[in-house]
Amino acid sequence: MNLDDDDLFRDAMGDVTPLKDCANTQWLRDPSTKAPRALQRNDAEENFLTRGFLEIIPLATPLEYKADGIQQGVLDKLRSGKYPLDASLNLLRQPVETCRQSLFNFMMQGRKQGLRNLLIIHGKGRDDESHANIVRSYVACWLTQFDEVQTFCVAQPHHGGAGALYVGLRKTEQARLDNRERHAKRSR
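RESULT FIELD:
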């Protein structure tokens, strides 16, 4: 720096006072010169949920889905909140891409743990173009892309109402075997 730069700097910094409490100041690390490690994706699946353009579902349209072969009574029981919830996911005020990743990871974890009934809180906006309604529309689209999803519908008011969905998943093969065993013992 030459003398003019020093004078300009001192003039610009004249009224600045140093920080008193440096304990809460976080310093950034120098960027690493090493190459980043390759991600371990041995057992992880690739996120197949769509990203692109989406037809926004109007707020007045309730979200509901029933896979082929599922009885109406299953959807009715889910809608009335009679199934106990195994887990929930909160997507409120999150960017769409974060919601996409969170939902995919949540569903994969639910599959591994053999969960059956989930609550997904997506929020609701005041108009059709609000962020919450965009997330709501994407969630409805994404859930139909999972083979495990049998049904989904709007939640009861105490669980979030139109700002949340109940999701019913298929039984795992292990759960089917356990169920057969339990009922076989009862029939003897």
